[in-house]
Amino acid sequence: MKECAFGSRARLRVSVSLVSLCLGTAINPARASDQELRIEHVTVVSPERSRALEDATVVINNGRITRLSGRSTAMFKSVSAMDTIDGRGLYLVPGLIDGHVHLGSIPGMNERQELAHPEISQAARAQMPRSFLYHGFTTLIDLDSTPERIARWLSQPLKPDTYFCGGAAVMDGYPMNWEPPAARYKDYPYLVVQSGQDARAHGIDAAIHSPAAVVARMKADGARCVKTFFQRFDGQDLPQPSLTILRAIVRAAHGAHLPVLIHATGTEGHTLGLDAGVDVIAHGLWDWTSTSSASELSPEVQRILDREIAARVGIEPTMSVAYAFRDLFDPLYLSSEQLRHVLPAALIAWYGTPEGQWFHDSTATWLLPNSLAKSTEIERWNFVRSYYEQTIEKGEITIRYLAARNARLIFGTDTPAVPSYANSPGLNGWLEMQRLVQAGVSPEQIFRAATLVPAVAFGMPDVGQVKIGGRANLLLLGEDPRQSINAYSRIVKVILNGRVLDLHDLAADHRP
Questions:
Q1: Is 17 part of a structural domain of the chain?
Q2: Which segments of 136-281 are extended strands (E)?
Q3: Among 169, 261, 347, 476, which lies 20 to 30 A Cα-Cα from 380?
Q4: The CATH number of the domain where 145 resides is what?
């Protein structure tokens, strides 16, 4: 079951197929290249360095950086067995990290539709990992998964290094509520039973669903982190985690050296996460009311943001969540040239069919007023843009406030936030960067938020930097990313565990 991250009126379900996993680890990185690689005369830009290392030579062996020098290449004698790249005029930077993805399903396709269109779904699943790489993402964190759910993703021969969080949902709370009772207890093995819940009535042993037991099981399964959830919906009286249960989860997770994240989009959830001592809030704060206008930060929200800044809590803005709904109604979205680089042509064509518009139509039933039932496509698009304008503006206001005060921002897209084709793998990250810049986040802050900060937050010391001993997940760019995010549209090479990948080979519309 894939969580729905947005909208108090949304009523969404996405099934995730469970497939068997060959035992080993669910977080195996892509196989390292055993070919030695040498990059000469390159400018190294790494987030831990105050200044770029110019005219550098970098040597990579068995997927790791073994030598790094800012002096001329005369320091290292050429080795005939090495592949050599001339890096003149280029910038070598760490590969990007998307700290919030969901990899179990194809955006915009449910399980029944996958089974009905095996050729389209097979092509889509093969392309999705390549599309993340196409846009420079060499590390991904799936924020609500299990070894079984992520197995299909890991079976692809070429993929970013991938890790997962276990989802510690309160029994029958969000996001379990989207599943029918017969399936939800199977699909959420890390559910937590809190005081007052009758677990026995559902055949659940509360003892093995205590915070300590659940966290121990996640750790044994190879989880990188623990995710909790707080979400209210109009008209639904869902069980919500108490402060007591959240603090117990945090204690257990920290005892196991795992960070804790909370899904929260509003003031109540952000406050609860702060009170419980979570490490990361997995969404920006866009669900709040203002006493005057949407463009004014309310005192309550400002107090929460100030607490987050002072506590150095990680914040994942995930601004693209609103666009997952909004862009479904953009009449030009499916004709985007950018989309052709990341999605197979057959999948894009299917999205345009009546069957492929299922989520668009489902969203329209609760979003559009009756007066627009017989409206034109442009009239609907104008209404939807206006509908989401306030939410997007509130998200921008809070992120602008945080960025101006050097808050601990962590890059995350929530791809796909809902079963929407408007959250495409890889491309969604590039669009998220543009939205962050629009909100007032500097290119240098984005660079850190997508490299070093998530590497530290998720306990991955060998990525997020260009350093000796570090994993060779790197990008060669034609521009300095600290100066402009346009650098990420000028990727020359992607290096994944020492393996050099050409961009045109990663594109969905590549013709050999």
A1: no
A2: 137-142, 161-167, 225-229, 260-263, 280-281
A3: 347
A4: 3.20.20.140
Domain with 432 in it: 96-499
Torsion of CA 319, 325, 329, 330, to 10 degrees: 20
Alpha-carbon dihedral angle through residues 265, 266, 271, 274, given to the nearest 10 degrees: 10
Question: Tens digit of pLDDT for each residue in 410-464?
Answer: 999 999 999 999 999 999 999 999 999 999 999 999 999 999 999 999 999 999 9
48 within some domain: no
Residue partners of 323: CB distance under 8 A and separation at least 6: 388, 392, 422, 423, 431, 435
Of 308, 282, 216, 207, the residue nearest 253 (C-alpha): 216
Three-class DSSP labels, 86-111 = ECCCCEEEECEEEEEECCCCCCCCCH
As to burial, measured by CB atoms within 10 angstroms (0-12 exposed, 13-18 middle, 19+ buried), residue 472 is: buried
> How far is Cα 457 from Cα 165, in angstroms, rounded to an integer?
13
- Global pTM value: 0.92
Q: How far apart are CA 413 and CA 9, in angstroms?
A: 21
